[in-house]
Specification:
There is one protein chain. The protein is an alpha/beta fold. It has three domains: about 140 residues, 3-Layer(aba) Sandwich (Rossmann fold); about 60 residues, Helicase, Ruva Protein, domain 3 (Orthogonal Bundle), CATH 1.10.8.60; about 100 residues, Zinc Finger, Delta Prime, domain 3, CATH 1.20.272.10. It is built from 18 helices and nine strands. The strands form three sheets. A five-stranded parallel sheet has the order 2-5-6-1-7, with helices on both faces. A two-stranded antiparallel sheet has the order 3-4. Strand 5, helix 7 and strand 6 form a beta-alpha-beta unit. The protein starts with 6 loop residues before the first helix and ends with a helix.
Protein backbone atom coordinates (compact mmCIF):
# COMPACT_ATOMS: atom_id res chain seq x y z
CA UNK A 1 0.00 0.00 0.00
CA UNK A 2 1.52 3.32 -1.08
CA UNK A 3 1.90 6.10 1.45
CA UNK A 4 0.64 9.59 0.66
CA UNK A 5 2.30 12.63 2.20
CA UNK A 6 0.00 14.70 4.39
CA UNK A 7 -0.42 18.46 3.68
CA UNK A 8 1.59 19.17 6.83
CA UNK A 9 4.51 17.02 5.61
CA UNK A 10 4.47 18.72 2.21
CA UNK A 11 4.47 22.14 3.87
CA UNK A 12 7.35 21.16 6.17
CA UNK A 13 9.33 19.85 3.18
CA UNK A 14 8.69 23.11 1.32
CA UNK A 15 9.73 25.21 4.32
CA UNK A 16 12.94 23.17 4.69
CA UNK A 17 13.78 23.79 1.03
CA UNK A 18 13.28 27.53 1.52
CA UNK A 19 15.63 27.79 4.51
CA UNK A 20 18.37 25.55 3.09
CA UNK A 21 21.53 27.61 2.51
CA UNK A 22 22.09 27.86 -1.22
CA UNK A 23 25.74 26.95 -0.68
CA UNK A 24 24.54 23.44 0.28
CA UNK A 25 21.48 23.34 -1.97
CA UNK A 26 23.58 23.98 -5.09
CA UNK A 27 26.75 22.17 -4.03
CA UNK A 28 28.00 20.01 -6.95
CA UNK A 29 27.02 16.35 -6.56
CA UNK A 30 29.37 14.96 -9.21
CA UNK A 31 32.78 15.85 -10.57
CA UNK A 32 31.14 16.96 -13.82
CA UNK A 33 29.19 19.60 -11.87
CA UNK A 34 32.27 21.27 -10.33
CA UNK A 35 32.44 24.75 -11.85
CA UNK A 36 36.15 25.13 -12.60
CA UNK A 37 39.66 23.64 -12.35
CA UNK A 38 38.89 21.11 -15.08
CA UNK A 39 42.53 19.98 -15.30
CA UNK A 40 42.53 19.03 -11.60
CA UNK A 41 39.03 17.53 -11.73
CA UNK A 42 39.83 15.43 -14.82
CA UNK A 43 43.03 14.11 -13.21
CA UNK A 44 41.26 13.12 -9.98
CA UNK A 45 38.36 11.64 -11.99
CA UNK A 46 40.76 9.46 -13.97
CA UNK A 47 42.57 8.28 -10.83
CA UNK A 48 39.23 7.47 -9.22
CA UNK A 49 37.99 5.54 -12.26
CA UNK A 50 41.19 3.50 -12.38
CA UNK A 51 41.00 2.78 -8.63
CA UNK A 52 44.37 4.49 -8.16
CA UNK A 53 43.32 7.33 -5.88
CA UNK A 54 46.31 8.54 -3.80
CA UNK A 55 46.27 10.49 -0.57
CA UNK A 56 45.25 14.04 -1.50
CA UNK A 57 46.18 17.50 -0.28
CA UNK A 58 43.91 20.17 -1.74
CA UNK A 59 44.83 23.74 -0.85
CA UNK A 60 43.87 27.26 -1.87
CA UNK A 61 41.54 30.14 -0.90
CA UNK A 62 38.04 29.49 0.52
CA UNK A 63 35.11 28.81 -1.79
CA UNK A 64 37.12 27.42 -4.70
CA UNK A 65 35.66 23.89 -4.76
CA UNK A 66 38.05 21.85 -2.61
CA UNK A 67 35.49 20.22 -0.32
CA UNK A 68 32.93 19.84 -3.12
CA UNK A 69 35.51 17.97 -5.21
CA UNK A 70 36.31 15.46 -2.47
CA UNK A 71 32.63 14.86 -1.65
CA UNK A 72 31.93 14.30 -5.36
CA UNK A 73 34.79 11.76 -5.44
CA UNK A 74 33.28 9.98 -2.42
CA UNK A 75 29.83 9.83 -4.07
CA UNK A 76 31.37 8.37 -7.22
CA UNK A 77 33.31 5.76 -5.26
CA UNK A 78 30.68 4.66 -2.78
CA UNK A 79 27.25 5.61 -4.11
CA UNK A 80 24.59 4.74 -1.52
CA UNK A 81 27.28 3.52 0.91
CA UNK A 82 28.72 7.06 1.07
CA UNK A 83 28.06 7.65 4.79
CA UNK A 84 29.54 4.29 5.88
CA UNK A 85 32.77 4.71 3.95
CA UNK A 86 33.80 8.26 4.77
CA UNK A 87 34.91 9.93 7.99
CA UNK A 88 34.51 13.69 7.68
CA UNK A 89 36.15 15.89 10.30
CA UNK A 90 36.68 19.62 10.55
CA UNK A 91 40.20 19.89 11.87
CA UNK A 92 39.63 23.41 13.23
CA UNK A 93 37.27 21.82 15.79
CA UNK A 94 38.83 18.36 16.10
CA UNK A 95 42.48 19.25 15.83
CA UNK A 96 44.25 17.59 18.73
CA UNK A 97 46.33 14.44 18.86
CA UNK A 98 43.56 12.55 20.69
CA UNK A 99 41.30 12.81 17.63
CA UNK A 100 44.00 11.26 15.45
CA UNK A 101 44.65 8.45 17.96
CA UNK A 102 40.98 7.68 18.59
CA UNK A 103 38.47 8.68 15.88
CA UNK A 104 40.75 8.54 12.84
CA UNK A 105 42.71 5.44 13.88
CA UNK A 106 39.55 3.57 14.93
CA UNK A 107 37.92 4.33 11.57
CA UNK A 108 41.02 3.48 9.53
CA UNK A 109 41.65 0.20 11.37
CA UNK A 110 38.22 -1.31 10.58
CA UNK A 111 37.86 -3.53 7.51
CA UNK A 112 36.81 -2.04 4.18
CA UNK A 113 33.56 -3.07 2.55
CA UNK A 114 33.22 -4.67 -0.85
CA UNK A 115 30.46 -3.65 -3.23
CA UNK A 116 29.94 -6.60 -5.54
CA UNK A 117 33.27 -7.83 -6.86
CA UNK A 118 35.03 -4.53 -6.29
CA UNK A 119 36.71 -3.71 -2.99
CA UNK A 120 36.90 -0.08 -1.91
CA UNK A 121 39.28 1.73 0.39
CA UNK A 122 37.72 4.02 2.98
CA UNK A 123 38.16 7.79 2.91
CA UNK A 124 39.10 10.16 5.73
CA UNK A 125 38.33 13.79 4.92
CA UNK A 126 40.10 16.38 7.07
CA UNK A 127 38.80 19.85 6.32
CA UNK A 128 40.81 22.88 7.51
CA UNK A 129 43.77 20.60 8.16
CA UNK A 130 46.07 23.61 8.56
CA UNK A 131 44.42 24.16 11.98
CA UNK A 132 45.77 20.84 13.30
CA UNK A 133 48.46 20.99 15.94
CA UNK A 134 51.97 19.88 14.96
CA UNK A 135 51.74 16.87 17.30
CA UNK A 136 48.47 15.82 15.67
CA UNK A 137 50.02 16.15 12.21
CA UNK A 138 52.98 13.96 13.17
CA UNK A 139 50.60 11.38 14.63
CA UNK A 140 48.51 11.51 11.45
CA UNK A 141 51.61 10.82 9.38
CA UNK A 142 52.12 7.54 11.23
CA UNK A 143 48.43 6.60 10.84
CA UNK A 144 48.63 7.25 7.08
CA UNK A 145 51.67 4.99 6.79
CA UNK A 146 50.03 2.21 8.80
CA UNK A 147 46.63 2.11 7.06
CA UNK A 148 47.46 3.03 3.45
CA UNK A 149 46.20 -0.34 2.16
CA UNK A 150 42.68 0.17 3.49
CA UNK A 151 42.23 3.95 3.76
CA UNK A 152 42.85 7.09 1.74
CA UNK A 153 43.28 10.47 3.38
CA UNK A 154 42.18 13.78 1.87
CA UNK A 155 43.50 16.91 3.55
CA UNK A 156 41.94 20.28 2.73
CA UNK A 157 43.46 23.58 3.80
CA UNK A 158 43.85 27.25 2.91
CA UNK A 159 47.53 27.61 3.89
CA UNK A 160 49.67 24.71 2.73
CA UNK A 161 52.74 26.11 4.52
CA UNK A 162 51.06 25.16 7.83
CA UNK A 163 51.10 21.46 6.87
CA UNK A 164 54.31 19.72 7.95
CA UNK A 165 56.58 18.55 5.08
CA UNK A 166 56.26 14.93 6.23
CA UNK A 167 52.51 15.05 5.52
CA UNK A 168 52.86 16.99 2.30
CA UNK A 169 55.29 14.42 0.90
CA UNK A 170 52.77 11.61 1.46
CA UNK A 171 50.02 13.33 -0.53
CA UNK A 172 49.44 14.35 -4.11
CA UNK A 173 49.02 18.13 -4.00
CA UNK A 174 46.52 20.17 -6.01
CA UNK A 175 46.19 23.94 -5.74
CA UNK A 176 42.72 25.43 -6.22
CA UNK A 177 43.09 29.03 -7.39
CA UNK A 178 40.34 31.67 -6.99
CA UNK A 179 37.59 31.08 -9.56
CA UNK A 180 37.54 33.07 -12.79
CA UNK A 181 34.77 35.65 -13.05
CA UNK A 182 33.27 33.66 -15.94
CA UNK A 183 32.86 30.55 -13.76
CA UNK A 184 31.33 32.54 -10.89
CA UNK A 185 29.00 34.33 -13.31
CA UNK A 186 27.83 31.11 -14.96
CA UNK A 187 27.11 29.42 -11.64
CA UNK A 188 25.26 32.46 -10.30
CA UNK A 189 23.14 32.60 -13.46
CA UNK A 190 22.23 28.94 -12.92
CA UNK A 191 21.10 29.65 -9.33
CA UNK A 192 19.27 32.83 -10.35
CA UNK A 193 17.32 30.92 -13.00
CA UNK A 194 16.56 28.02 -10.65
CA UNK A 195 15.29 30.36 -7.91
CA UNK A 196 13.48 32.70 -10.31
CA UNK A 197 15.27 35.80 -9.01
CA UNK A 198 15.07 39.35 -10.36
CA UNK A 199 18.73 40.34 -10.74
CA UNK A 200 19.95 43.33 -12.76
CA UNK A 201 23.15 43.16 -14.81
CA UNK A 202 24.82 45.64 -12.47
CA UNK A 203 23.65 43.55 -9.50
CA UNK A 204 25.18 40.40 -10.98
CA UNK A 205 28.42 42.27 -11.71
CA UNK A 206 28.52 43.49 -8.08
CA UNK A 207 28.03 39.92 -6.80
CA UNK A 208 30.89 38.64 -8.95
CA UNK A 209 33.21 41.51 -8.01
CA UNK A 210 32.60 41.31 -4.27
CA UNK A 211 33.05 37.53 -4.21
CA UNK A 212 36.72 37.80 -5.32
CA UNK A 213 36.64 34.31 -6.83
CA UNK A 214 34.95 32.74 -3.77
CA UNK A 215 31.85 30.83 -4.92
CA UNK A 216 30.63 30.26 -1.37
CA UNK A 217 30.78 33.99 -0.66
CA UNK A 218 28.98 34.80 -3.92
CA UNK A 219 26.07 32.46 -3.11
CA UNK A 220 25.81 33.71 0.47
CA UNK A 221 25.67 37.34 -0.71
CA UNK A 222 23.08 36.43 -3.34
CA UNK A 223 20.84 34.66 -0.82
CA UNK A 224 21.22 37.40 1.81
CA UNK A 225 20.41 40.14 -0.69
CA UNK A 226 17.37 38.21 -1.95
CA UNK A 227 16.07 37.94 1.63
CA UNK A 228 16.45 41.71 2.07
CA UNK A 229 15.23 42.90 -1.34
CA UNK A 230 12.95 41.50 -4.03
CA UNK A 231 15.03 43.10 -6.78
CA UNK A 232 18.76 42.45 -6.60
CA UNK A 233 20.51 45.58 -7.84
CA UNK A 234 24.05 46.85 -7.41
CA UNK A 235 22.92 49.15 -4.61
CA UNK A 236 20.99 46.34 -2.86
CA UNK A 237 24.06 44.08 -2.94
CA UNK A 238 26.32 46.78 -1.48
CA UNK A 239 23.81 47.76 1.17
CA UNK A 240 23.32 44.13 2.23
CA UNK A 241 27.04 43.46 2.56
CA UNK A 242 27.93 46.84 4.05
CA UNK A 243 30.42 47.50 1.25
CA UNK A 244 30.81 51.08 0.00
CA UNK A 245 28.89 51.91 -3.15
CA UNK A 246 30.96 52.73 -6.26
CA UNK A 247 29.77 56.36 -6.08
CA UNK A 248 31.03 56.52 -2.47
CA UNK A 249 34.45 55.25 -3.54
CA UNK A 250 34.50 57.79 -6.36
CA UNK A 251 33.85 60.55 -3.83
CA UNK A 252 36.50 59.22 -1.43
CA UNK A 253 39.01 58.90 -4.27
CA UNK A 254 38.33 62.47 -5.35
CA UNK A 255 38.99 63.69 -1.82
CA UNK A 256 42.23 61.68 -1.57
CA UNK A 257 43.55 63.05 -4.85
CA UNK A 258 42.37 66.65 -4.72
CA UNK A 259 41.54 68.02 -1.27
CA UNK A 260 43.62 69.03 1.74
CA UNK A 261 44.33 66.63 4.58
CA UNK A 262 41.77 68.27 6.89
CA UNK A 263 39.02 68.38 4.25
CA UNK A 264 39.66 64.78 3.21
CA UNK A 265 39.74 63.55 6.82
CA UNK A 266 36.47 65.23 7.74
CA UNK A 267 34.80 64.21 4.46
CA UNK A 268 35.65 60.51 4.78
CA UNK A 269 34.82 60.50 8.51
CA UNK A 270 31.40 61.99 7.77
CA UNK A 271 30.71 59.36 5.08
CA UNK A 272 31.77 56.57 7.42
CA UNK A 273 29.39 57.78 10.13
CA UNK A 274 26.44 58.61 7.87
CA UNK A 275 26.60 55.45 5.74
CA UNK A 276 27.94 53.06 8.38
CA UNK A 277 31.06 52.17 6.38
CA UNK A 278 34.01 50.26 7.82
CA UNK A 279 37.44 51.71 7.14
CA UNK A 280 38.79 48.26 6.21
CA UNK A 281 36.18 47.99 3.42
CA UNK A 282 37.10 51.47 2.20
CA UNK A 283 40.78 50.42 2.11
CA UNK A 284 39.99 47.35 0.00
CA UNK A 285 37.93 49.34 -2.49
CA UNK A 286 40.53 52.12 -2.68
CA UNK A 287 43.19 49.47 -3.34
CA UNK A 288 41.21 48.28 -6.37
CA UNK A 289 40.86 51.91 -7.47
CA UNK A 290 44.63 52.40 -7.16
CA UNK A 291 45.21 49.83 -9.90
CA UNK A 292 43.19 51.99 -12.31
CA UNK A 293 45.08 55.27 -11.72
CA UNK A 294 47.86 56.12 -14.14
CA UNK A 295 51.04 56.58 -12.10
CA UNK A 296 54.68 55.43 -12.13
CA UNK A 297 55.10 51.75 -11.30
CA UNK A 298 57.28 52.40 -8.24
CA UNK A 299 54.76 54.84 -6.72
CA UNK A 300 51.91 52.39 -7.40
CA UNK A 301 53.84 49.58 -5.72
CA UNK A 302 54.54 51.76 -2.68
CA UNK A 303 50.88 52.83 -2.45
CA UNK A 304 49.62 49.24 -2.64
CA UNK A 305 52.14 48.23 0.03
CA UNK A 306 51.07 51.14 2.29
CA UNK A 307 47.38 50.24 1.89
CA UNK A 308 48.13 46.60 2.73
CA UNK A 309 49.98 47.72 5.87
CA UNK A 310 47.00 49.84 6.95
CA UNK A 311 44.60 46.92 6.40
CA UNK A 312 46.93 44.66 8.39
CA UNK A 313 47.03 47.12 11.31
CA UNK A 314 43.24 47.45 11.25
CA UNK A 315 42.93 43.68 11.58
CA UNK A 316 44.66 43.98 14.96
CA UNK A 317 42.27 46.65 16.19
CA UNK A 318 44.42 49.73 15.66
CA UNK A 319 42.75 53.12 16.04
CA UNK A 320 40.54 53.98 13.03
CA UNK A 321 41.36 57.69 13.10
CA UNK A 322 45.11 57.06 13.04
CA UNK A 323 44.75 54.62 10.15
CA UNK A 324 42.52 57.04 8.25
CA UNK A 325 45.30 59.61 8.61
CA UNK A 326 47.75 57.02 7.25
CA UNK A 327 45.44 56.38 4.29
CA UNK A 328 45.33 60.07 3.40
CA UNK A 329 49.09 60.47 3.82
CA UNK A 330 49.81 57.43 1.60
CA UNK A 331 48.27 59.32 -1.35
CA UNK A 332 50.68 62.30 -1.05
CA UNK A 333 53.28 60.79 -3.48
CA UNK A 334 50.47 59.92 -5.89
CA UNK A 335 49.19 63.50 -5.92
CA UNK A 336 52.72 64.82 -6.48
CA UNK A 337 53.22 62.41 -9.38
CA UNK A 338 49.91 63.40 -10.99
CA UNK A 339 50.74 67.13 -10.66
CA UNK A 340 54.19 66.55 -12.17
CA UNK A 341 52.68 64.60 -15.07
CA UNK A 342 50.15 67.39 -15.72
CA UNK A 343 52.96 69.95 -16.05
Amino acid sequence: MSETATPMEVEQSSDKSKITPWVEKYRPHSLADVAAHRDIIDTIDRLTSENKLPHLLLYGPPGTGKTSTILAVARKLYGNHFHNMILELNASDDRGIDVVRQQIQDFASTHSFSFGAKAHVKLVLLDEADAMTKDAQFALRRVIEKYTKSTRFALICNHVNKIIPALQSRCTRFRFAPLDTSHVTDRLKHVIAAEGLDVSESGLAALVRLSNGDMRKALNILQSTHMASQQITEEAVHLCTGNPLPKDIERISYLLLNESFATTFSGISEMKTKKGLALVDIIREVTMFAFRIRMPADIRAQLINDLADIEYRLSFGCNDKLQLGSLISSFTPVRSALVAAAK
